[in-house]
Design brief:
heterodimer, A: 110 residues, mainly beta, seven-stranded mixed sheet, 11 strands, B: mainly beta, 0% helix, globular
Chain lengths: 110, 111
């Protein structure tokens, strides 16, 4: 089984809809991250969490919110999706110097 | 502000060639640099991690070097194979809360 899983893997939605992307990990790591990747750009940090009670904004948090329901679960929400949020979204955990990435969610906002 | 650049953006080589991927960064005050591989439909996989005190790391046919003073890292792939086709990303960690990623080099190894 994969250590970091993301659901859904693909999602098409319409402008204005609320959508949640979920991330689960079996690695037991405290640190979790949400990134987005756009074509031709590097990964950009949306939110990060160092434990259940510690959630922080990254460089592009506007339009997004997160919830750390448990050590193993970190969800990303788009309250009102817009087309420029179309991207590939990655969840990651971190232990020491190494990050472990999920397989990604491809989100399309029409 | 740290910026990470990877050149070239895309590369096609025939099978068996040795090749070098480049990564440059603007702020030499880094703790480590990591090379990742990204396959379509899959997440990023860590290939090599170089601490700031190290000059290089090797894993099988892969060798990564780090020159902090010049703000450069290279990933050397020996005897390339079609299975090496993927996007390669480098990321630097400057001791804050996040890695700064480059835009990647898309590699295609032709059989």
């Amino acid at each position: 089984d994969a250590d970091v899983t993301q659901t859904p893997r693909n999602r098409i939605t319409k402008t204005g809809k609320r959508i949640m992307l979920e991330c689960s990990q079996t690695k037991g790591h405290d640190r979790m991250y949400w990134y987005r990747q756009d074509p031709g750009l590097g990964l950009q940090l949306i939110y990060y969490s160092f434990d259940v009670k510690d959630i922080n904004k990254g460089e592009i948090s506007d339009g997004y919110s997160v919830s750390r329901q448990a050590q193993a679960k970190f969800s990303l929400s788009l309250e009102s999706a817009i087309p420029n949020q179309t991207a590939l979204y990655f969840c990651a955990t971190r232990l020491g110097d190494t990050q472990y990435f999920g397989p990604g969610t491809r989100l399309t906002v029409l | 502000k740290q910026e990470v650049t990877q050149i070239p953006a895309a590369l096609s080589v025939p099978e068996g060639e040795n090749l070098v991927l480049n990564c440059s960064f603007t702020d030499s005050a880094i703790y480590n640099l990591q090379w990742f591989r990204q396959d379509p439909g899959k997440g990023l996989t860590s290939l090599l991690l170089i601490q700031s005190s190290q000059r290089e790391q090797t894993s099988g046919r892969l060798n990564a070097s780090l020159d902090k003073s010049s703000g450069r890292s290279t990933l050397y792939i020996a005897a390339s194979q079609p299975g090496d086709s993927a996007t390669y990303l480098c990321a630097v960690f400057s001791g804050t809360y996040k890695y700064i990623f480059g835009t990647g080099t898309r590699l295609k190894v032709l059989a």
